[in-house]
Amino acid sequence: MPNEFCYIDEKARTVDYADDAVRREILNIRDFQRIYGMKKDFINQDLVTRGGETTTRSFFKLPKDITGNDVEVLHYYNRALDAYWVVANNVVIHYGPLPTKHKELPFAVRYYYRVPGRFWGMGIPRIIHMLAEERNTIRNMNMDRQHMQINQMFLHNNLYDIDEEDLVTRPGGLISIDTNGLPLSQAIQPLVVPDIRSILLQV
Q1: CA 120, CA 126: separation in Å to the nearest integer?
Q2: Domain residues for 181?
Q3: 14 & 79 share domain
Q4: Which of 9-18, 30-39, 156-165 shows the highest mean pLDDT?
Q5: Are 67 and 142 in a shared domain?
Q6: Short-list 20, 27, 19, 24, CA closest to 4
Q7: Reported pTM
Q8: pLDDT tens-place string over residues 132-160
């Protein structure tokens, strides 16, 4: 059952200590009549109208995921009161004790990754999302490193007039500098960014 269709006692950390719970289901009006129409100990099924019929509603608004032919059925379980109530589109169709012999909430919680101290665990999509974020971060760092190695920056002596456009890396590019007889390395030289893998090997 999806998490959004189950509401457990918010004070409970485990299902064993929950006092009450609500199970929600959305049914087509025909399926509702077929399932609950002749069900034992259920009443007022003929008073339940489909979701699109709003003339009998005065205060409560329909959920946004209810279409014109749907019926929202809410099953309320309370262990302390030994109560099992069912409401279909704001019409009470059952009012009685818990149907189970053990008189406990009829839910079994399944965890993929349990979070200590919390009722809800961590699902697989959350784990995959974290791994995907880590993979994207590493990929972006590798791309930045490659860009820095391909498009290197330059160090130059400010005694020489060099335009920034001349320092743009391009195939067959040429930078003309008058060094007045000094070595070229004293006029301009590339800023070499070490490869992260070589740094890790040194460590």
Answers
A1: 13
A2: 124-202
A3: yes
A4: 30-39
A5: no
A6: 24
A7: 0.58
A8: 888 888 888 888 877 777 777 777 676 66
